Amino acid sequence: MATGIPVIDALIAARLALSLSLRAVGRELGVSAAAIHHLESGNLAAISWDKVQAYGALVGVAIPEERPETPRAARARHVALRLFYCPKPLCVRNHSYWDERGELRVLAMMVRTQRAELKCSGCGEVMESHCPHCDGQVVTSGTFCSSCGKELIPLPPPDSDPLGIRAALAAGCEERSVIQQLLSRETREIPPPME
Hints:
Structural class: mainly alpha
Oligomer: single chain
Order of helices and strands: HHHHHEEEEH
Number of strands: 4
Number of domains: 2
Helix content: 25-40%
Strand content: 5-15%
Radius of gyration: 29 Å
Largest sheet: 2 strands, antiparallel
Shape: rod-shaped
């Protein structure tokens, strides 16, 4: 029975070549025959790695120092979900805001997917999954890279913004602020329900 894990397949072949039963191996290692069966079925967590190394020494198979990755874990890592964001500051998917120091910032709204490439539904731009500064993979939502701490969507400096990106974002912030104030005023003025 092949598990697809070379170390385990080698242990099984060596045990069978020596005509050792699961119970005999378990007895030598101080574990149950069921634990050996689970290990030989591909469950690398069935017994401690020290016991697996002792099993290797018992049957004459060299066992690596580190526990190998199972095919299932490798597949899961390969298809892991990635975060993507639109790198365009003026995209409707992203949100501009004023931080506590009065700096204009852009909050990158994330999309989580298994795909390798994604186009923004807001503007059609190819979405990014890595920081433009350190090339680290984005692992959390937000304004800043969790690896280098720099902005994921950097804005041009105030003195060199020929396209008026900062002004457009600031106007959007002001408009949202006014709308939020109006909404909060309306909710305060709604009378309580009659009994």
